Automatic annotation (TrEMBL):
It comes from Leptolyngbya sp. NK1-12. Residues 3-297 form the RmlD-like substrate binding domain. Gene3D superfamilies: NAD(P)-binding Rossmann-like Domain, UDP-galactose 4-epimerase, domain 1. GO terms for cellular component: cytosol. Pathway: Carbohydrate biosynthesis; dTDP-L-rhamnose biosynthesis. It is an enzyme of class 1 (oxidoreductase). It comes from the Bacteria. Catalyzes the reduction of dTDP-6-deoxy-L-lyxo-4-hexulose to yield dTDP-L-rhamnose. Its EC number is 1.1.1.133. This is dTDP-4-dehydrorhamnose reductase. Keywords: NADP, Oxidoreductase. InterPro entries: dTDP_dehydrorham_reduct, NAD(P)-bd_dom_sf, RmlD-like-bd. SUPFAM superfamilies: NAD(P)-binding Rossmann-fold domains.
Amino acid sequence: MTRILLIGQDGQVGQELLKTLAPLGDVIGVGRQQLDLAQPDQISQLLEAAQPQLIVNAAAYTAVDKAESEPELAHTVNGTAVKQMAETAQRLGRPLIHISTDYVFDGSKNTPYLETDATNPISVYGQSKLAGETAILQVRQQYPDFRYLILRTAWVYGALGKGNFVKTMLRLGAERQEVRVVADQVGTPTWAADIAKAITAFSPRLLDPALDLSGIYHFTNSGVTSWYDFALAIFEEAKSLGVSLQIQRVVPITTPEYPTPAQRPAYSVLANQKIQSVLQSPAPQWRQSLRQMLSELYLSN
């Protein structure tokens, strides 16, 4: 039976991975209490003790704005810890799956970003995530038999885990008649459950010694929207499920009207063709996944 070590089991993607990875084997999930990535020296010891056949890292420092005032911590968790993971995984001869982000790009394109496009993060968070990617690629360069998957995704939300844009909008929509939402940032909302399914579908291919599909891949739901239109869709879908909301108006605003400590890419749509050619299945459309997530959130409670 395949032993899979899942780091970050308590996050919104981690909790979904606990469910989707289970049919593949014995999943050992660890959260921050068992492994604090702010203390990277713990990593080798944990990996050697667990002796997994596959390591999946769903943990990260994800507080985008807070990272601007905590750059050292963000870089430790998203960079140094990932370097330790990659080096230990290589030493054990085990593949590593690592989740990265659209924020490694600056958002200056107006067509979907390919895996081969130049990175240029404009926030501390994006820089720290790029440091993690770079560390994995350096291990691969040094040891060509090291197998890895870097999966970049974007605008992640889910029914599980802590707050996300969908949960924030639902809370505000229940309390207020009006919300103001940025309309000039474009991307693709992506359901954590779909990310978990994509990682799970990719895993056996990474474990197969006859294949070498290592590399950077993009995965998001399909389609494109703005945060403003995403908010409208959240309220429409929630109301269609009978959720009681106070919201009457969603007001579109520009990025300068909602200043944040961290800069965000104006355009961060990711091209999905590379992973689709491997998995042989298209990514679900973002609104379809939103509907499914809200059904789970409300109908399972």
